[in-house]
Amino acid sequence: MKHIVYKYDDDQRDEIDFDAQGLLTFTKGDLVLRHGANWKIDDVQKEENLGLARIPTYWIYLSRIVVN
Fold first, then answer.
1. Cα angle value 61/10/23 (rounded, 5°)
2. Which residue of 8, 28, 36, 64 has the lowest C-beta tally within 10 Å?
3. What is the DSSP-derived secondary structure letter of residue 22?
4. pLDDT tens across 13-52, in order?
5. Strand arrangement, sheet containing 37-46
6. Phi-psi category of 29—alpha, beta or left, where left has phi over 0 and alpha has psi -120 to 50?
7. Distance, CA of 53 to CA of 5 (rounded, Å)
8. What confidence score (pLDDT) does residue 55 get?
9. 1 alpha-carbon distance from chain centroid
10. Closest-CA residue to 58 (of 1, 2, 19)
11. What pTM was computed for the model?
């Protein structure tokens, strides 16, 4: 189980998602499709220093892939 925060490199606002099953994996360099556009994962950061009752948060930094 984890919270996911997508941070975009354009004018789109950050998005928060919830992975209740813990099935989603993110790796730097992977490509994802969101909002009808392709994005590259630039960085993945896991929030550290969690208390016992907190759900981990993953910050996913995305850059838009422009195809000519």
1. 35
2. 36
3. -
4. 899 999 999 899 999 999 999 988 999 999 999 987 667 6
5. 15-19, 2-8, 57-64, 37-46, 31-34
6. left
7. 19
8. 87
9. 14
10. 2
11. 0.84
Q: Provide the residue ranges of all domains of the chain, joining segments of one domain with +.
A: 2-64
Amino acid at position 28, single letter: K
What is d(CA 38, CA 34) in angstroms, rounded to the nearest whole number?
7
Q: Which two tokens stand for residue 28?
A: 């730097």
Q: 1-31 b/e with 16+ CB inside 10 Å = b?
A: ebebebebeeeeeeeeeebeeeeeebeeeee
Question: What is the pLDDT at residue 50?
Answer: 67
- For residue 62, give the amino acid letter: L
